[in-house]
């Protein structure tokens, strides 16, 4: 692999920026100062260093974030804080993006990555990767709603959803509220809210708690994130 690609892949800078570091003699490979950006390195064998710091090759990055309300699922926004803004300077990379989106007022499990193929695998309805949501609803959810969700709903009178699994955890008829869990295999715009609206109720709180077989860790508080482990990535990919 070319040295400039190695350095750009690990996030040391853009291809242009790392070429400058190399030209200025700031990069060593196996103890030798290298000033050619075309120099070939063995990414898993050679010792590459920048300012006496050893650089370890990693092409793809995966972070799990417990998204708080008020933050938008985007890489940049002119008005609101984005999920990328929650990253520290050390973890920030220009190629990171959220896998899918959670609405601005929705909390919970969100993955940030630079792996486009991984994102496609999780979001494609053909892959049938489950996404589970916890919601508080204004209105009393019923068995008839469970059946309607299982058949798929026509939302906003024009868009058909795939069948979804609705579980009614609790109902309080005095306050006219319900707590539900909903499992989807797709991610249409505002889908949970629109499906609940289609049966005459309103979502007042929404949180994603699972993707694939990976549950949002209980010890990850709102606004916190960390890199995912290989085992966690396997859980996300599993159906």
Automatic annotation (TrEMBL):
Its EC number is 5.4.99.-. It comes from the Bacteria. GO terms for molecular function: RNA binding; rRNA pseudouridine synthase activity. GO terms for biological process: enzyme-directed rRNA pseudouridine synthesis. Residues 1-59 form the RNA-binding S4 domain. Keywords: Isomerase, RNA-binding. Gene3D superfamilies: Alpha-L RNA-binding motif, Pseudouridine synthase I, catalytic domain, N-terminal subdomain, RNA-binding S4 domain. Signal peptide: none annotated. GO terms for cellular component: cytosol. PANTHER family: PSEUDOURIDINE SYNTHASE, PSEUDOURIDINE SYNTHASE FAMILY PROTEIN-RELATED. Belongs to the pseudouridine synthase RsuA family. This is Pseudouridine synthase. The lineage of its organism: Bacteria, Bacillati, Bacillota, Bacilli, Lactobacillales.
């Amino acid at each position: 692999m070319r040295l400039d690609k190695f350095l750009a892949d690990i996030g040391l800078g853009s291809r242009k920026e790392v070429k400058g570091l190399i030209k200025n003699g700031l990069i060593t490979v196996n103890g030798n100062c290298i000033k050619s950006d075309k120099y070939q390195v063995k990414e898993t064998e050679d010792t590459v260093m920048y300012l006496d710091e050893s650089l370890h090759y990693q092409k793809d990055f995966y972070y799990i974030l417990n998204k708080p309300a008020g933050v938008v699922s985007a890489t940049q926004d002119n008005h609101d804080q984005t999920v990328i803004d929650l990253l520290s300077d050390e973890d920030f990379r220009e190629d990171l993006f959220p896998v899918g989106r959670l609405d601005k007022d929705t909390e919970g499990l969100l993955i940030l990555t630079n792996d486009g193929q991984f994102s496609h695998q999780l979001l494609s309805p053909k892959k049938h990767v489950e996404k589970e949501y916890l919601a508080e609803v204004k209105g009393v959810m019923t068995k008839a709603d469970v059946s309607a969700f299982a058949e798929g709903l026509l939302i906003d009178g024009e868009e058909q959803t795939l069948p979804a699994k609705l579980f009614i955890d609790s109902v309080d008829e005095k306050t006219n509220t319900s707590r539900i869990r909903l499992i989807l295999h797709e991610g249409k715009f505002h889908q949970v809210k629109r499906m609940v609206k289609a049966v005459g109720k309103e979502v007042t709180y929404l949180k994603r708690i699972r993707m694939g077989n990976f549950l949002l860790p209980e010890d990850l508080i709102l606004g916190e994130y960390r890199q995912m482990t290989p085992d966690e990535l396997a859980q996300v990919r599993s159906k």
